[in-house]
Design a protein that fits this description.
The complex is a heterotrimer.
Chain A (H helix, E strand, L loop, with lengths): L1 H21 L3 H21 L3 H25 L9 H29 L13 H9 L5 H22 L2 H32 L1
Helix pairs in contact in A: 1-2, 2-3
Chain B lengths: L17 H21 L3 H26 L4 H31 L13
Chain C lengths: L4 H25 L8 H26 L14 E6 L4 E5 L4 H24 L6 H20 L3 H19 L7 H31 L4 H10 L15 H19 L8 H4 L5 H10 L1 H11 L6 H24 L3 H21 L3 H29 L10 H4 L1 H15 L5 H20 L5 H25 L6 H6 L5 H16 L14 H5 L6 H6 L6 H35 L5 H7 L1 H8 L4 H5 L4 H64 L7 H19 L1
Classes of the chains: A mainly alpha, B mainly alpha, C mainly alpha.
Chain lengths: ~200, ~120, ~700
């Protein structure tokens, strides 16, 4: 059963990834990324990390990808085609990289062994993760720091996304408005003074 | 101490060995790097980075599982997911700015650093 | 219906925090508030005054309640300021009849002065800041009165010093005020350091600084082993006396006693309402209040020191008041002299008399200062030789001033009479019971009473009577606005009624103050096992001293008045002829007994300057010489190094530049500015490293 699930999810992940990289249409690529990330979520599940799998689906598969799709819609879609020449040139880098990974993984695989596979499937991990997140000796500090980081990101993203020209314009309009008000006040008060 | 009858063996084939997970994560990593290197659209670069992050996450979880390191691998993966979300938000904001400044999201054209 | 203790304590807390709040508001937003924010300060002090009067009223009600004649609520409101294992410093509020009366006096006088100031300071560019400082001062002064331990008394003691410094130097654009404020601050430092030493010794002796706890511990006589404390060669009695004298040194500087009195006349450079509030009614009286608070602490020897200093100050102050022509300086010397009276009273065992005089004096002296402020406001001069005949132009100022003068002189029926008479009676009783040199305070007090009457009527005659001395200034003089005269009338009312009775033959033991504030037993005598004069003996001496003292004072007053009338109103004796006859003596007094010279450039400060000069010479010629030699050597070495630098190093650098430019033109080719290319090269680098390491 687990073997079967592994094959299915690994296929999702890798084929999704391949499609994403080489598909000419960015919208299709984005959906291929969803499939790939979904496959990874499944792989988490086969590893007994149920909470992480769900998080992956909720955050990545829906959240990040939806964000990505918005960006796709807001930008140009004309840069579709993949240059074969570029791919060939990059093969010179990717090939040795693959080799290096293979060598490294083989070495690590030998070190770790497979005894972990015989461990019991950790029954629902959610309570354990919750405990760890809220214990000072666990991950409470990183958790709080992450929340601050998210706030900063929120503000930073909003600031960055506003075009510079736009900002200058808005500042200028504020100043103009203030000037206009000042002039208007003077204009309004002067006749009153004369009337009195 | 784990008694034999409590042990649920994950599997004897692919799912029971670390190397199969490593192959998948390695594949995802290479795909991510390729994506970053060959695509000119900045959004593809971002998607490639997400793929790389996922391969690393998969490694964390798999090593923790087979190495018997408990929950720490999952916790790190969780924080990576959080940070990836933050990174995506900032990166997309930067891409929007690049689009506004250069009129395109082509990473080969954003080369004003050369001057 | 009396309030509960806790309610009264909370009110006490509010009394000194409200002016702090007013200060905070004014210092930040004063200039933006309508009318410069004076109403904030006034509202604050009036609130305090209302609260203080409420508490006072409770005490009066308590007076008719047999269980409440000596009311104190020291245990109510306190918390630990410092709480270490062995070191606990609790701080709290101490409300007893004495502090309640002080609170009432301070807030009522301050309220009058706050309103007066609104008229006096009108149009000043720093108007809001003036009220901020006044509020700050009131906060510090009320805190000083309220706290229940010596350390916090010291802290507030310093805070009022800061307030005084800020307010004396308020017109800091002019030349004199900044100098005077600095002088006041520095002279007070001398006393304050000694005061702190006294506090430290007290802490050593009893291990606490809370008043009741201190006196309790002292009366119990549980002193630490002399071997285990500092000054082990001194006996407990000697150390206690030393502590008392040092604590009193704080009062010497704060209350302008000889020999640290020199700052007070100079402090008159401040605005007149400040002189009235700080340098007449409240801050200078803080020294007297402190001695009263610490009264059970003083050994008979320490009290004798207090009495001696007080007697000398009373006489010296009065004589200096005779010769000054500056209206404010005369009042300043008078204040100094009266503070001497209070110290004298306390020193000779007249606890009640000294503190009673503090209260009555505060009202009529504030009235006198405000009156002089009103006069200065009208004629724009402080010199009495520019005045004269102002009685007709400024009737309200004149009458209030006259009432306060009569009170100060101690004319029967006025407030000053009851308190001053008690002091003189106590001094006489002390002389009678101890004999010999103990007569000095009584003699000085009697001569002082004569001089007081003389200089005060000299002031009144020169300012308000006779022909105008300066026709131009007289022509421009006018009565001050109601904002200024109404506070004068209120204070004059207190000068008239402050004794609580108008009957000159009233039994002094049953005046309101004597009923409320009985003298505490001497804890020092109890702790050291000294023989204490029995209460009957004291009462007997006092009783037999009362009428002789009364006649002496009356004689002094009449003589003083007649002499002043002869010299300054009728002018049948020329003052100039008198000064000629007493030439050397006159010169001594005019030169302020050379105290300022003693401290000045040809005295203490000059000596320090000479030492400084010698040190500076050493610095300039010896130390600087060495430094310069080192510098010259350095310059020579630097010159040689410079040559090396120019030809060898620069040559190297220049060739490096050429090389760098060459290399960079090659490496620049890799800098495409394209992020993808950078990433590719990064990966290549990582791979090279990976294969090399593997």
């Amino acid at each position: 059963m687990y073997d079967f699930m592994f094959v299915i999810f690994a296929t999702f992940a890798l084929v999704g990834g391949l499609l994403m990289v080489f598909h000419p249409s960015i919208v299709h690529s984005a959906f291929a990324l969803v499939a790939s990330l979904f496959g990874v979520a499944g792989l988490y599940w086969t590893l007994g990390a149920d909470f992480l799998g769900v998080t992956q689906v909720v955050l990545y598969v829906s959240g990040v990808t939806v964000l990505l799709l918005f960006a796709v819609m807001l930008s140009d879609k004309t840069l579709g085609a993949v240059s074969i020449l570029r791919c060939a040139a990059m093969g010179l880098v990717i090939g040795p990289l693959a080799m290096a990974l293979m060598v490294t993984y083989r070495a690590i695989d030998g070190m770790v062994g497979t005894e972990g596979a015989a461990l019991p499937d950790p029954a629902p991990t959610t309570p354990a993760i919750g405990d760890l997140l809220l214990q000072p000796e666990g991950y409470l500090v990183p958790f709080e720091v992450a929340s601050v980081l998210l706030l900063i990101v929120l503000v930073g993203a909003v600031t960055l996304a506003r075009p510079m020209a736009d900002r200058q314009v808005s500042r200028k309009t504020i100043a103009d408005r203030a000037d206009a008000e000042a002039r208007g006040d003077e204009g309004a008060s002067a006749p009153q003074g004369e009337g009195a | 101490m784990v008694s034999p009858q409590d042990a649920v063996v994950v599997g004897s084939g692919f799912a029971g060995s670390l190397s199969s997970y490593l192959v998948v994560s390695g594949g995802l990593f290479l795909l991510g790097v390729t994506c970053v290197l060959v695509r000119r659209n900045a959004l593809y670069v971002l998607m490639g980075v997400e793929l790389i992050l996922n391969s690393a996450n998969l490694n964390f979880v798999a090593f923790a599982r087979f190495g018997g390191y408990g929950m720490d691998g999952q916790m790190v993966a969780l924080f990576v997911v959080i940070l990836a979300a933050a990174e995506a938000a900032v990166a997309l904001a930067i891409i929007m700015r690049v689009f506004n400044e250069f009129g395109s999201v082509d990473v080969t054209r954003t080369d004003s650093l050369r001057d | 219906m009396p309030f509960a203790d806790q309610t009264l304590l909370t009110m006490g807390l509010a009394i000194f925090l409200v002016p702090l709040l007013a200060f905070t508001v004014l210092i930040h937003f004063g200039s933006r508030l309508p009318k410069g924010g004076d109403w904030v300060a006034q509202a604050g002090i009036v609130t305090s005054a209302v609260l203080a009067l409420t508490i006072f009223w409770n005490v009066i009600v308590g007076l008719y309640d047999p269980g409440w004649t000596w009311w104190s609520a020291e245990a109510g409101l306190s918390w630990n300021w410092i709480d270490l294992a062995d070191l606990k410093l609790p701080v709290g509020l101490y409300l007893d009849n004495l502090s309640v009366i002080m609170l009432t006096m301070v807030t009522v006088v301050a309220s009058c002065i706050f309103f007066f100031s609104a008229g006096y300071m009108h149009g000043d560019p720093k108007y809001p800041r003036f009220f901020a400082y006044l509020s700050y001062f009131c906060f510090a002064m009320l805190g000083l009165v309220l706290v229940d331990n010596l350390l916090f008394l010291f802290i507030f003691w310093e805070l009022v010093g800061v307030g005084s410094y800020l307010l004396i130097g308020f017109f800091h654009e002019e030349e004199e005020p900044p100098r005077a404020s600095l002088k006041a601050f520095m002279v007070n430092r001398v006393g304050d350091v000694l005061f702190l030493l006294g506090i430290i010794i007290a802490w050593q002796l009893v291990g606490t600084l809370n008043y009741p706890a201190m006196f309790e511990a002292l009366a119990a006589g549980n002193f630490p082993d002399p071997a285990s404390r500092a000054f082990s060669s001194l006996s407990n009695h000697q150390l206690l006396t030393l502590s008392g004298v040092l604590i009193f040194c704080g009062a010497i500087s704060k209350s302008a006693q000889v020999p640290l009195h020199t700052w007070l006349p100079d402090a008159m450079a401040g605005p007149t309402p400040v002189s009235a509030l700080i340098h007449a009614a409240t801050m200078v009286a803080a020294g007297v209040f402190m001695v009263g608070r610490m009264y059970p602490w003083f050994t008979p020897e320490a009290l004798m020191f207090v009495a001696g200093i007080g007697a000398v100050t009373a006489l010296v102050g009065a004589t200096m008041g005779l010769v000054s022509f500056d209206i404010k300086k005369v009042l300043a010397y008078s204040t100094m002299s009266q503070l001497g009276y209070m110290m004298l009273g306390l020193g000779v065992g007249g606890f009640v008399a000294g503190l009673f005089h503090l209260i009555t004096h505060a009202f009529f002296k504030a009235c006198l200062f405000l009156g002089s402020g009103s006069v200065i406001h009208a004629v724009h001069s402080q010199d009495m030789r520019d005045m004269g005949g102002l009685r007709k132009k400024m009737p309200r100022t004149y009458w209030t001033f006259l009432l306060a003068t009569l009170a100060l002189a101690g004319v029967p029926c006025f407030a000053g009479y009851y308190s001053k008479d008690q002091i003189v009676a106590n001094a006489l009783a002390w002389g009678l019971s101890h004999g010999a040199a103990h007569w000095v305070p009584f003699l000085f007090a009697s001569v002082g009473a004569f001089l007081t009457t003389f200089y005060m009527f000299r002031l009144v005659f020169m300012t308000f009577h006779g022909a105008p001395q300066n026709a131009e200034k007289y022509a421009h003089a006018h009565e001050s606005p109601a904002l200024m005269t109404i506070p004068l009338m209120i204070l004059a009312g207190f000068a008239l009624l402050g004794g609580g009775t108008m009957n000159p033959l009233a039994d002094v033991d049953h005046l309101w103050f004597n009923e409320l504030v009985p003298a505490p037993a001497s804890a020092a005598a109890a702790g050291l096992g000294l023989a204490v004069e029995s209460a009957e003996d004291v009462a007997h001496h006092l009783h037999s001293a009362h009428y002789p003292a009364l006649f002496t004072s009356l004689l002094a007053i009449v003589a003083g008045f007649l002499l002043a009338r002869r010299m300054y109103l009728v002018k049948s004796t020329d003052p100039a002829a008198v000064t000629r006859r007493f030439g050397p003596l006159y010169g001594l007094v005019v030169n302020k007994y050379h105290f300022d010279d003693m401290y000045g450039d040809r005295g203490l400060v000059g000596g320090l300057k000479q030492v400084n000069g010698a040190l500076a010479w050493f610095d300039r010629n010896i130390v600087d010489g060495v430094v310069n030699a080192v510098g010259l050597a350095g310059r020579f070495i630097a010159f040689v190094m410079g040559l090396f630098d120019k030809y060898v190093i620069d040559g190297l650098v220049n060739s490096m530049r050429t090389l760098t430019r060459l290399c960079s033109s090659i490496f620049r080719l890799a800098q495409t500015g394209n992020a993808r290319d950078y990433l590719t090269w990064t990966l290549v680098g990582v791979l090279i490293l990976a294969f090399w390491l593997a």
